[in-house]
């Protein structure tokens, strides 16, 4: 049962956004950006692309090929490419004209339009159906001349695809009868957004250090929105502490844009996001994103020891919160992040994809 609060009246739990991350190609290296735009399907240009097996047309992730983390992604404009080649270290976010795909430690680089037009897609791709978590959806498959670069690298025939026009309707905790409305996403596993609390990573790293393991970075969990957290000794009574995200229900990001009449809350400013479920983790965080090497134990063993906290998926540990935006608008590092509604019971993971 949810606590009945007016999410825009009285005190709220406050923090701020410290990082934003997008992963243009599912499971490939992500990009830390200063600002972006939240769409109903997630952060702009996040997981619009994906690799699939050329024969089965099933999606491929780090679970299958850890070398995916050796594919760097970036965005560039015409001026970048005309002057001195693409600039992978200067992503342009919503101004992007090209997705730059680079295979680390090689001279292989591929450029495709960041926002391909229907005519470009018609001339350069083939509309096919692909499978992601037993969900068939449409996608534009790139030409053999592009895909051969990646097939050579993986030593396995693959296709790079771009999400097609048919909405991929959310299931599980995002299903219409659970969320209260119909929403869709591109190629994230489950939900359009993943929110992470820095304090939880700090707490996890303290446990890893106690076992003689080096700290890990938030990148291993592939979140989109990272908020500042505080440990339990914080003097700020209302500041988020480690794992406080377990009971978040609704959050708001203050971006200065006024929205009226969103789901019954009129006149508020900012982005309103429903926090629908904990993110149940596999062993992808065991893979070092810099080297593609997979640790046999950590952080999986440590997380399993104390973060199997969701009765809906008892055998997996949880880190981060799967979320769905109610409205669209700009977002940036430094913006205020408010937890405006909390649950009185517990989140319960519902298997969807």
Automatic annotation (TrEMBL):
Q: Extract the coiled-coil ranges from the record.
A: none
Top-rank taxon of the source lineage equals Eukaryota
Q: Which GO terms describe its molecular function?
A: catalytic activity; molybdenum ion binding; pyridoxal phosphate binding
Pfam families, alphabetized: MOSC (PF03473), MOSC_N (PF03476)
Describe the location of the MOSC domain by residue ranges.
Answer: 164-340
Can you name this protein?
A: MOSC domain-containing protein
């Amino acid at each position: 049962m949810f606590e009945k609060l007016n999410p825009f009246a009285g005190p709220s739990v406050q923090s701020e956004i410290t990082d934003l991350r997008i992963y243009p190609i599912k499971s490939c290296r992500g990009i830390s950006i200063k600002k972006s735009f939240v769409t109903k399907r997630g952060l702009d240009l996040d997981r619009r692309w994906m690799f699939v097996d050329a024969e089965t047309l099933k999606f491929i992730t780090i679970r299958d090929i850890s070398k995916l983390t050796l594919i760097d992604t970036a965005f560039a404009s015409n001026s970048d490419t005309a002057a001195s080649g693409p600039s992978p270290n200067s992503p342009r976010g919503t101004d992007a004209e090209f997705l730059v795909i680079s295979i680390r430690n090689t001279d292989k680089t591929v450029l495709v339009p960041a926002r391909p037009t229907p005519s470009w897609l018609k001339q350069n791709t083939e509309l096919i159906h692909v499978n992601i978590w037993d969900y068939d959806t449409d996608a534009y498959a790139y030409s053999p001349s592009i895909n051969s670069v990646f097939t050579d690298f993986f030593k396995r025939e693959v296709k790079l695809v771009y999400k097609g026009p048919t909405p991929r309707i959310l299931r599980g905790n995002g299903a219409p009868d659970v969320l209260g409305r119909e929403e869709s996403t591109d190629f994230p596993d489950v939900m359009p957004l993943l929110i992470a609390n820095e304090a939880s990573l700090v707490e996890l790293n303290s446990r890893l250090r106690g076992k003689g393991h080096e700290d890990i970075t938030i990148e291993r969990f592939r979140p989109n929105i990272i908020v500042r957290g505080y440990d339990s000794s914080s003097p700020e009574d209302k500041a988020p502490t480690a794992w406080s995200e377990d009971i978040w229900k609704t959050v708001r990001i203050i971006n200065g844009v006024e929205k009226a009449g969103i789901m019954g809350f009129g006149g508020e400013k900012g982005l309103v996001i429903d926090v629908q479920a904990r993110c149940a983790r596999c062993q992808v965080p065991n893979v070092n994103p810099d080297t593609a090497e997979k640790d046999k134990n950590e952080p999986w063993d440590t997380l399993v020891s104390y973060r199997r906290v969701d009765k809906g998926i008892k055998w997996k540990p949880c880190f981060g919160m799967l979320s769905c935006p109610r409205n669209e608008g700009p977002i940036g590092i430094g913006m205020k992040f408010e937890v405006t509604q909390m649950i009185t019971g517990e989140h319960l993971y519902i298997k969807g994809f």
